[in-house]
Design a protein that fits this description.
7-stranded mixed sheet; 3-stranded antiparallel sheet
Length: 238
């Protein structure tokens, strides 16, 4: 496959079709038999599976063979390169009719992120990283300059970062890592905490946050682990 401007435009158009056909008509309109609870107590809907299947078919058709997805995880992280898919990040928001959901993708090669995509299906806004740059609807954008810290700190983070983030404006989490990152891109959030993340939401988020020059309590910012159970905070330097 060739990763270039046309690749991102085509992917945007495909995700827009997914949003129009599947996500938007069903947000907040699910029946009980369309929602189930997974072993980790997270929710999954029949539409998570449908969107994931459509994305897998699309990316396999254009040449991505190793795909790790939320509902079909595997050991492909041991490969030199793989694509990660989070079909509907913010599933509880999707169930409850809250318009804070995202589709998240990342392509990892030799422990580096070649590109990441966070797509807002409600607003049809397409963000992607490529060659150490961030793009919004295919136009390059620059990181925000923050004058104060904005975000949500749990009790653990308040203790850990008491000397780093001592004064801040509280803003609750959106319950979607992807949507929190969108708010960071737009300057509406200068830090966010991540709990029990998996690679399909963490790796796309990390790709953007690294380019936004966010700091973190991670020992490194490499894309080299299968999952991370610890609590993470990413924050901007003022």
């Amino acid at each position: 496959m060739m990763i270039d401007t046309n690749f991102f435009i085509d992917t945007h158009n495909f995700l827009k079709k997914i949003a129009i056909d599947i996500i938007i008509p069903n947000i907040g309109k699910l029946s009980e038999n369309e929602v189930s609870t997974k072993e980790d107590n997270s929710k999954v809907t029949s539409y998570d599976v449908i969107v994931e299947d459509e994305l897998i078919k699309y990316f396999k058709k254009i040449g991505f063979s190793n795909i790790i997805s939320e509902e079909g995880n595997s050991t492909l992280i041991k490969k030199n390169e793989y694509l990660t898919i989070d079909p509907i990040d913010g599933t509880r928001n999707f169930i409850n009719g809250i318009n804070k959901v995202a589709v998240m993708l990342s392509f990892i090669k030799s422990n580096q992120c070649e590109f990441a995509i966070i797509y807002d299906p409600i607003g049809n806004v397409f963000y992607h990283t490529y060659k150490n740059l961030i793009f919004k609807n295919h136009k390059q954008i620059k990181p925000q300059n923050y004058s104060n810290q904005i975000g949500f700190l749990g009790e653990h983070a308040k203790i850990y970062f008491k000397d780093i983030i001592t004064s801040y404006t509280e803003k609750i989490r959106s319950r979607s890592i992807g949507y929190d990152v969108i708010e960071a891109i737009e300057g509406e959030r200068s830090f966010l905490t991540v709990y029990g993340s998996k690679i399909w939401d963490l790796f796309p988020a990390m790709s953007f946050l690294k380019l936004l020059n966010f700091e973190t309590n991670l020992p490194n910012m490499e894309f080299d682990y299968s999952k991370l159970e610890k609590k993470i905070i990413f924050y901007a330097n003022l």
